[in-house]
Design goal:
Distance between the termini: 153 Å
Radius of gyration: 56 Å
Number of strands: 47
Protein name: Cell wall anchor protein
Number of helices: 6
Keywords: Membrane, Secreted, Signal, Transmembrane, Transmembrane helix
Mean pLDDT: 86
Number of domains: 7
Organism: Clostridium perfringens
Helix content: 10-25%
Oligomer: single chain
Strand order of the largest sheet: 1-2-3-14-13-4
Largest sheet: 6 strands, antiparallel, barrel
Pfam families: SpaA (PF17802), TED (PF08341)
Family: Belongs to the serine-aspartate repeat-containing protein (SDr) family.
Strand content: 35-45%
Length: 757
């Protein structure tokens, strides 16, 4: 068993070591960086020395700094199979684009396999700049010729042409030019010829003695000499060429290796959502490879094996849809019509199977229905010995359509100025930014290509809530009317504070109940109760007109259902403050002074009345109308007098509550009555004679809102001495008589004893 475990451990260790070897084998990293040149920023990788690389994705971040001590250093891993590998990053733009990029790198800088740099007079920085720009334009789908024949933009156009019509294949040599002999001044000449292919050269090994190969620019004789790929030349013959002759070519070339670099780590994290660009470069193998070719020629006609085929594909520039009904003319490169009224079929194609080698162009004369006409020539070349169909493409931009976005208030439909939107495609990529609604609440765009779009709000109008929900719409091909869409916004919520107060003293009143209503009287919220501060506070009201309606008054106060109106406005900064006052619930109280025995009225009494909450300070009154009618008023007097025919007085509008009625002066011959404790409310009013007396219910005269209390007085004897109340009861008189008699008896006994002695 131990021996088995030891063997198993050894096997696991070997497997683990091999795993580590594989891990480390694929994780070699290369420093890539950006550097300034005379033509702007260029990109390099440290891969066995500094090598030019090209960024693959225009809208991504470029590689970082070349400085060893920089924090912005970026590292990449390398892969060598580009054309023959299925890979997410390499195939991001599709196989066709990948093949075009490969061809571009072969003809562009630094391989320069067709010597285009020399032809257009470009140095390394300029050629590098143009090559990079074209890489980006091809991957972005923005590649279009400048129409120049010379300099940087002539170089751009030539690279663009070659990337479209010359699919790169290792060792594939292509002849450019019209390989036909024309008799001039007794000799036979071809037009200008050149080749494209891998970097290298070729020689014509069986050139007849009556033929001479010459450099197009210098007339240098190139017989038996290597002719560089891309070098311009022509063939001269002193006799009419034999139509059966086949020229044998020995092509000596260097194979091209492509290196693709993927971002691994490093760089500044300034925008974590934006990835770094992938990188690509090409270099030549050190060894040369030979490949033989044969080219058939004829002085009067083009042999059938040299006839070429072209397919023009007509597509929508946005979605790649194939377009039927476009009309083209086929022209030579000088613009002379060769064939006219060629129409794309249901597959969006024009197919021609019988074109002699040469340079051609398609020129559109009528666009498909709903599309813009584009007369830019689509150039292509049929080469001698061509075996594959030339596939070219012409895209059309659909006629532009329009959209109107109208911004409104969600409640009242008011048009809203100042909302900011971005226009995006359906994947959320910004197409236009900072579009602002005008005074009519609108954003108007009249130049949109057919497709699916969406508006996304980035800033709400002042006083409104932001709503970033996309508003989707579609511009269709051939659209004749503007698309109208709408986006509503909800205004930011505002606040209100209702303060409930006593109408006279301003005291804050707790316990009042309100409903919140709209201006039509519809309840929005109910049973809102004023707190200990007398307030109802709401902070979540949409702009609009409202009213508070009281449904229950604070205890002891009159209900007042008069609405308290207020308005919440858009962009309100502070809470609206409103106030509602209540009047104390009040009644009328009549005090009548009567004799306790006869029940007859007694004039001359004076009273004070106190709130049971403040027994130190009597209430003050003023007379109203007549001397026996009083109302509470802080500027009045405290004395209430019971005079007149019925010896009474009335306190009008006395608020509900608890009071103490004190007699401060009795009628002449009567003693002061006890304090009377009075309780007044709407439901159960009563009074007590003395604090511990029995409750005596009060009945209201509803027609007069009046309670009556009869205050009775007992008769008493007036004493001459001052002080007290001036009255004495019969019991007290008897006690006094007995006291005086007792004193007189003592005095009599004392005097009698003195006489005996």
């Amino acid at each position: 068993m131990k021996r088995f475990l030891k063997t198993l451990s050894f096997i696991i260790l070997i497997i683990f070591n091999f795993s580590l070897i594989n891990v480390f084998a694929i994780t070699k990293e290369y420093l890539a960086y950006s550097k300034y040149t005379s033509e702007g920023t260029a990109f390099f990788v440290n891969d066995d020395g500094e090598k030019t690389v090209y960024c693959y994705n225009h809208d991504y971040k470029p590689p970082g700094s070349p400085n060893e001590d920089s924090i912005n250093k970026t590292y990449y891993t390398r892969e060598e199979s580009y054309l023959n590998t299925d890979d997410e990053l390499m195939d991001k733009y599709g196989k066709e684009i990948k093949e075009r990029i490969a061809a571009l790198l072969v003809y562009g800088y630094p391989l320069n396999s067709s010597n285009l740099m020399e032809q257009y007079g470009l140095n390394e920085d300029k050629a590098r700049y143009i090559t990079q720009q074209l890489v980006w334009d091809i991957t972005n789908g923005n590649d279009a010729p400048f129409g120049d024949k010379y300099g940087m933009y002539g170089y751009y156009d030539k690279l663009l042409e070659l990337s479209k019509i010359k699919k790169f294949e290792q060792g594939n040599l292509n002849l450019i030019g019209n390989f036909k002999f024309i008799q001039r001044n007794g000799i036979y000449l071809t037009d200008k010829l050149s080749t494209t292919g891998n970097s290298g050269s070729f020689t014509i090994t069986n050139l007849p003695e009556n033929m001479t190969v010459k450099d197009w620019n210098t007339d240098q004789i190139l017989n038996d000499k290597p002719i560089k790929v891309g070098q311009e030349f022509y063939i001269e013959s002193s006799a009419k060429p034999d139509s059966s002759l086949k020229l044998k070519i020995n092509y000596n070339y260097q194979e091209v290796k492509f290196y693709f670099y993927k971002y691994s780590r490093g760089g500044l994290n300034t925008n974590p959502d934006l990835p770094y660009q992938s990188l690509i470069r090409a270099e030549l193998e050190d060894k040369f490879t030979e490949k033989p070719y044969e080219i058939s020629i004829d002085g009067n006609f083009v042999p059938s094996q040299d006839i070429g085929k072209v397919v023009l594909n007509k597509k929508d520039s946005q979605n790649g849809k194939l377009l039927k009904g476009a009309v083209f003319n086929l022209q030579d490169q000088q613009g002379n019509n060769i064939r006219t009224n060629l129409i794309t079929d249901e597959n969006g194609q024009i197919v021609l199977n019988d074109l002699a080698p040469g340079d051609y162009q398609f020129v559109e004369t009528k666009a498909p229905n709903g599309y813009e006409l584009d007369t830019t020539p689509v150039k292509f070349t049929i080469v001698v010995g061509q075996t594959e169909t030339v596939n070219i493409e012409k895209v059309n931009t659909a006629s532009l359509g329009g959209v109107v976005l109208t911004k409104k208030d969600s409640k009242n439909g008011n048009l809203l100025e100042g909302a900011v939107f971005n226009l995006q495609d359906q994947q959320g990529n910004n197409i236009r930014t900072n579009l602002i609604t005008d005074e009519n609440g609108q954003i108007v765009l009249n130049d949109l290509a057919p497709g699916d779009y969406q508006f996304v709000e980035t800033k709400a109008p002042n006083g409104y809530e932001l709503d970033a929900t996309p508003v989707k719409f579609t511009i269709v091909v051939g659209q004749t009317e503007t698309v109208n869409i709408e986006k509503v916004n909800t205004a930011s919520l505002g606040g209100v504070v209702l303060t409930k107060k006593d109408s006279k003293n301003g005291n804050l009143l707790e316990g009042a109940v309100f409903n919140l209503q709209d201006q039509q009287g519809n309840d929005i919220r109910t049973n809102l109760i004023s707190d200990e501060n007398g307030q109802i506070i709401l902070n979540d009201l949409a702009p609009g007109d409202y009213q508070f309606v009281e449904t229950k008054a604070p205890e002891g106060y009159e209900l007042d259902a008069t609405p308290v109106k207020f308005t919440i406005v858009v962009a309100q900064k502070e809470a609206v403050k409103v106030e509602k006052t209540n009047i104390l619930a009040a009644t009328n109280l009549k005090i009548s002074k009567i004799d306790s025995n006869t029940k007859n009225p007694l004039n001359g009494s004076e009273f004070e009345i106190y709130s049971q909450n403040d027994t130190s300070n009597p209430l003050k009154f003023i007379t109203t109308g007549s001397s026996d009618q009083y109302e509470v008023n802080i500027i009045g007097e405290s004395t209430l007098m019971a005079n007149g025919v019925d010896s009474s007085f009335t306190i009008n509008k006395l608020g509900y509550g608890d009071y103490i009625l004190k007699e401060i002066k009795a009628p002449s011959g009567y003693k002061l009555g006890k304090d009377i404790y009075i309780h007044l409310d709407k439901i159960n009013s009563y009074y007590k004679i003395g604090s511990d007396g029995e409750k005596i219910d009060l009945n209201k005269d509803e027609s007069l809102n009046l309670y009556n209390i009869n205050v009775e007085n007992e008769k008493g004897i007036v004493l001459p001495e001052t002080g007290g109340n001036g009255f004495i009861t019969q019991r007290n008189i008897a006690i006094m008589v007995l006291g005086i008699s007792f004193i007189l008896m003592i005095n009599f006994l004392i005097n009698k004893k003195r006489r005996i002695n």
